């Protein structure tokens, strides 16, 4: 008798080798096109909705057709972020080893929430965390978490800080919540990143808890005012310092801030989204002197380490507080065991998540210590070259001291500044973002991509010279 199998009982299909080979070809063609393609997307919003939209098919579609159609429809709406001429938002490219490892991550499809779901993924995170602590000069016994990015890293670190400062005054926030708890003040600089404020909101501490301190012209916190604030009422306190202001690249005086915090019982957190990577460079390490004295650190790998999105790290000098803020357990979970493997869900807000450690491991191993230092130093050298070239463009004013990879500049007035930027983006030669500083329009450039070359900097400078003449 003939038997008809339901879709649920059909045997698994063969490995779609043709599909994966074609996908790899599409990916390679995209990467090869970066040097000659416009950096900005070319399609409008309406065009993309038309190309990608329409009703969901009733029946199934061949996977190869799906991938080819997707690539063809999306291509005009892709920004060439992996290009060496993309200078926006402190976004790196993807190192070849990291991209390849990220592909394997998708194929392996491991869940490193706890060891039993992905032993290799868990151990890779353990190894990579130790490498990062050594590379960046953080305490060897610091706990850590692989998260989506610096926003979630702040959330993780500040949750540990919240536990720590309230526990010190006898309040168990995990058990009792914040209702009726002692108030927490969070001391920040006026030019902190908005993700710090957002983490404070998410944690229920609230924006009203912020004590905003003045900063100097580059965005560095005024430490004398910090000392005054810390000398005030002895409420539980978190201090958020910054390594790498988003527009200027300026780094707070972390050593002096650590001196001010020492002995007060306050928790010192460092937003090192990209600037903490200066610690990997012997030539730039002095900029973050004293960073190891903090209580927690948040930073990204998808910025200066150039791994694919998304990839952030949270480190904490107080593992007990970190674990208390994050851990979870359930009868059905398989946790711990012989040799005490590391269960990542004890350290992250996530339960199930992507095995981000593979790409970070591959990036670090492919570069080595000297390669990471060279990537950081080369980016900073390109930024200085760009700033020097801009200084010779009529009507252009460089607004910051170029200490890292950020250049902040403007033209004669707001209209000219925005007009020059628009012309450069429309030329396809580079992509940068505008900003507002002290009430005036400006342009910010970030050199973060491993592929950026002298030629890329030259092309971007030529585009600004031409745009300035047109304006």
From TrEMBL:
SUPFAM superfamilies: PLP-dependent transferases
Pfam family, one: Pyridoxal_deC
Xref: InterPro entries: Aromatic_deC, PyrdxlP-dep_de-COase, PyrdxlP-dep_Trfase, PyrdxlP-dep_Trfase_major, PyrdxlP-dep_Trfase_small
Protein name, entry field: Pyridoxal phosphate-dependent decarboxylase family protein
Family that this chain belongs to: Belongs to the group II decarboxylase family.
The protein's required cofactors: pyridoxal 5'-phosphate
Keywords: Decarboxylase, Lyase, Pyridoxal phosphate
PANTHER family the UniProt entry points to: GROUP II PYRIDOXAL-5-PHOSPHATE DECARBOXYLASE, MIP05841P
Domain of life the protein comes from: Bacteria
């Amino acid at each position: 008798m003939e038997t008809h199998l339901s879709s649920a009982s059909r045997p698994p299909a063969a490995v779609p080798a043709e599909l994966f080979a074609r996908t790899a070809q599409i990916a390679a063609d995209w990467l090869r096109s970066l040097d000659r393609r416009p950096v900005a997307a070319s399609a409008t919003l309406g065009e993309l909705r038309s190309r990608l939209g329409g009703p969901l098919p009733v029946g199934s579609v061949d996977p190869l057709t799906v991938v080819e159609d997707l690539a063809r429809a999306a291509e005009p709406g892709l920004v060439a972020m992996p290009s060496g001429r993309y200078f926006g938002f402190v976004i790196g490219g993807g190192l070849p080893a990291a991209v390849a490892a990220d592909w394997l991550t998708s194929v392996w499809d491991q869940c490193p929430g706890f060891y039993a779901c992905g032993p290799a993924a868990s151990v890779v995170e353990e190894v990579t965390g130790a490498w990062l602590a050594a590379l960046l000069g953080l305490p060897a016994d610091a706990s850590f978490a692989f998260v989506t990015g610096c926003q979630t890293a702040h959330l993780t670190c500040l949750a540990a800080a919240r536990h720590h400062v309230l526990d010190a005054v006898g309040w168990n926030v995990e058990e009792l919540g914040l209702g009726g708890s002692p108030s927490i003040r969070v001391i920040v600089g006026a030019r902190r990143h908005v993700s710090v404020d957002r983490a404070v909101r998410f944690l229920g501490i609230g924006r009203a808890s912020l004590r905003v301190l003045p900063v100097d012209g580059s965005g560095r916190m005024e430490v004398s005012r910090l000392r005054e604030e810390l000398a005030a009422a002895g409420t539980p306190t978190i201090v958020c310092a910054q390594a790498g202001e988003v527009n200027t690249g300026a780094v707070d005086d972390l050593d002096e801030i650590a001196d001010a915090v020492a002995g007060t019982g306050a928790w010192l957190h460092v937003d090192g989204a990209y600037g903490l990577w200066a610690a990997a460079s012997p030539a730039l390490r002095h900029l973050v002197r004293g960073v190891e004295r903090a209580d927690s650190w948040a930073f990204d790998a998808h910025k200066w380490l150039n791994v694919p999105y998304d990839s952030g790290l949270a480190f904490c000098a107080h593992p007990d507080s970190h674990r208390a803020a994050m851990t979870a357990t359930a009868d059905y979970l398989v946790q711990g065991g012989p040799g005490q493997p590391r269960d990542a869900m004890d350290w992250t807000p996530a339960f199930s998540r992507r095995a981000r450690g593979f790409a970070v491991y591959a990036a670090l191993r492919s570069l080595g210590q000297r390669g990471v230092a060279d990537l950081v130093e080369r980016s900073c050298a390109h930024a200085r070259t760009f700033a020097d070239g801009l200084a010779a463009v009529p009507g252009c004013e460089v607004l910051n001291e170029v200490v890292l990879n950020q250049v902040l500049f403007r033209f004669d007035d707001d209209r000219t500044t925005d007009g020059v930027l628009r012309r450069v983006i429309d030329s396809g030669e580079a992509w940068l973002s505008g900003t507002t500083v002290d009430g005036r329009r400006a342009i910010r450039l970030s050199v973060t991509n491993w592929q950026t070359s002298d030629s890329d900097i030259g092309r971007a400078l030529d585009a600004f010279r031409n745009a300035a003449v047109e304006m």
